[in-house]
Design goal:
The complex is a heterodimer. Chain A has 13 helices and no strands. In chain A, helix 6 crosses helix 8, helix 8 runs antiparallel to helix 11 and helix 9 runs antiparallel to helix 10. Chain A is flat and about 85 Å long. Chain B contains eleven helices and no strands. The two termini of chain B are 20 Å apart. Classes of the chains: A mainly alpha, B mainly alpha. At the A-B interface, helix 1, helix 6, helix 7, helix 11 and helix 12 of A face helix 5, helix 6, helix 9 and helix 11 of B.
Chain lengths: 306, 283
């Protein structure tokens, strides 16, 4: 167990170092010169040079990269070119909003996906199954920003039940979380269905049925415990998909999370922020994978840690 | 293969998907002939006296946008953008993924490990953030957007093809072929690659759906295809601030994106059902 954990942690660290290499490379490729943008059009050559020196951008690339790594190790993500604040502070101040949105999203995607998938699996081949599967395709095919704007139009404009965006109360959270929950729910219903179909075909289910248990007990007690595992594990693997959705939905709803921060940073070529958000998102993805690996053996003793 | 085609044609959802794809393809190819107005022309009578866009009416079937251009004509031309990027970007992604997956799976050893560790690394990247960053680096034209999407989307193809190639290369008939002196190109192209076609075909279809959505999303975020090239996501981006007063500017392009993405999803899923032997007889 400990050896497995150590190995997986080691792999994760190597992947994260790779991520820093790529984010650093991307920042270097950005065409706009951050120093010029910072100094403004009227700046003299001397000012430009002094800013360049101040930011350490006059040094050779490998030196810049190693310094960047060294600062990262101390939790320092650098300073925003535009906002003159620490990137780590910016991200930390935005992170709770994104985590809240994530919790809401997971709640809705499971609330929609699990029952729909179970129902489809038990009614396999029949109308309810076909209907649910067709709807799940619509859910995964609709662009999140279109869904977001439509929900806003109907539930905030025509029927003014919810606010038109912003942050603060549960009412603010509902529409953005539902937007991401609907597209995620489509995937979860498909996974839940196929996992359930596989389990319902196994011998112990036949035994349970032949004991005379009601179909409800068979499905919800005997089958569900086994079928739900791979689906729950997906929550951990889903963080990357969530981050992409967060960028879109946060900009539609004006939700002050790190997705919106990243989008604003891209518009202003604020490279340290872009690098920081990408890194934080990558850490989230790696942690999610790690968590999924660790949690599964606890729910399912048949899976041993190697 | 012909029996697979027959079974595909029995699937009603797949038929619906194929019909949708044909419809959009026709719209894209013949856009200049079908479109009632030039897509970039700003009509004086296309705006109200206050300068607001027109709702759907007799002259402009789907209404006009903020600049008084015909939305229907722009949607028709936007189908070109979506389909070209969908097919080109996904084709490139499948090609890159298949190439790296086959190389890694066939060679294994150091090159294989290196390639697969690199795909692990790519998996840890939030794809959309990477695409946004890349799109911000290269000023996006149609082909640059396609390239960016391909650079982000090849990863999963590579993983699937890698594991299939590893499994195939371990089969006894490969060993037998090698023992009678078959050269590696023969083993690769005659004995391994043909088994990968079904998977590639399924990814080649399903992936277009993801690609269409990604292109729309990039354009919606303002880092996609540049105006005045009509793009469905771009139309929504341009009219976002106005959408409460002119919902048709979101509704129609949104429906177009949904239908096209849905169509490729339905056909791809049906293809997977008929091509994957392990799925046969399952529902």
């Amino acid at each position: 167990m400990l050896i497995f954990l150590a190995q997986r942690l080691g792999q994760s660290v190597i992947i994260l170092i790779g991520v820093t290499l790529i984010t650093f490379g991307l920042a270097f490729l950005m065409p706009a010169d951050p120093v010029r943008m910072l100094a403004g059009r009227s700046a003299t050559q001397a000012t430009v040079e002094s800013i360049r020196k101040e930011l350490g951008l006059d040094q050779p690339l490998p030196v810049q990269y190693l310094k960047y790594l060294g600062r990262l190790a101390q939790g320092d993500l650098g300073r925003s070119y535009k906002q003159k604040t620490q990137v780590s502070e910016l991200i930390l101040s935005r992170l709770p909003a994104t985590l809240l949105l994530m919790a809401g999203t997971i709640f809705f995607e499971l609330l929609i996906g699990l029952p729909a998938g179970i129902l489809a699996a038990t009614k396999r081949g029949r109308f309810a199954d076909n209907g649910i599967m067709a709807l799940s395709f619509v859910g995964v095919s609709i662009p999140q920003f279109v869904l977001g704007l439509l929900l806003l139009y109907v539930f905030a404009h025509i029927l003014p039940i919810f606010p038109l965006g912003g942050y603060g109360t549960l009412n603010h959270l509902l529409l953005p979380a539902l937007t991401l929950g609907i597209s995620g729910g489509g995937w979860y219903s498909r996974m839940m269905r196929s996992s359930m179909v596989d389990v319902l075909r196994q011998d112990f289910i036949r035994t349970a049925r032949s004991k005379g248990l009601s179909e409800l007990t068979v499905v919800l007690v005997h089958a569900l415990r086994n079928a739900i595992l791979p689906v729950i594990a997906m929550v951990g693997l889903d963080i990357g998909i969530f981050m992409a959705g967060a960028v879109v939905v946060e900009s539609v709803y004006g939700w002050p999370g790190i997705g919106q921060l990243a989008w604003q940073a891209i518009q202003m070529v604020d490279i340290p922020i872009i690098m920081g958000v990408t890194l934080v998102a990558a850490i989230g993805i790696v942690l999610g994978n790690l968590l999924a690996d660790l949690v599964i053996p606890f729910i399912d003793p048949r899976v041993y840690l190697r | 293969m012909s029996s697979a085609l027959n079974r595909l044609l029995k699937n009603k959802l797949a038929i619906f998907g194929l019909a949708m794809i044909s419809l959009f393809a026709t719209a894209a190819v013949f856009a200049p002939f079908i479109a009632p107005h030039p897509p970039d022309k700003q009509f004086f009578e296309g705006l109200t006296l206050e300068g607001a866009p027109l709702a759907p009416n007799k002259t402009f079937w789907l209404g006009t946008d903020l600049l008084g251009r015909s939305l229907f004509s722009r949607l028709l031309h936007g189908a070109r953008t979506s389909l070209i990027i969908g097919i080109a970007a996904n084709g490139a992604a499948v090609f890159i993924g298949a190439f790296l997956g086959i190389v890694a799976g066939y060679l294994q050893g150091l090159p294989g490990t290196a390639i697969m560790r690199f795909t692990d690394l790519m998996m840890a990247f939030p794809a959309l953030l990477l695409a946004i960053a890349l799109a911000a680096i290269f000023r996006p034209s149609l082909w640059i957007v396609a390239l960016v999407i391909a650079l982000v989307n090849w990863v999963q193809v590579a993983r699937v093809i890698y594991s299939q190639t590893v499994a195939l290369a371990a089969q006894e008939y490969i060993e037998a072929a090698r023992s009678i002196g078959a050269a590696w190109p023969r083993i690769l192209f005659i004995h391994i690659v043909p088994h990968l076609w079904p998977t590639l075909l399924v990814w080649g279809t399903l992936g277009i759906s993801t690609t269409v959505l990604l292109e729309a999303t990039l354009s919606f975020l303002g880092v996609g295809v540049r105006p005045p090239t009509p793009s469905w996501g771009g139309i929504i981006y341009e009219s976002q601030s106005y959408f409460l007063d002119a919902p048709w500017l979101v509704f129609f392009p949104g429906t177009a994106i949904l239908l096209l993405s849905l169509a490729f999803n339905l056909v791809g899923d049906a293809l997977r059902d008929v091509l994957d032997p392990t799925q046969r007889g399952r529902g």
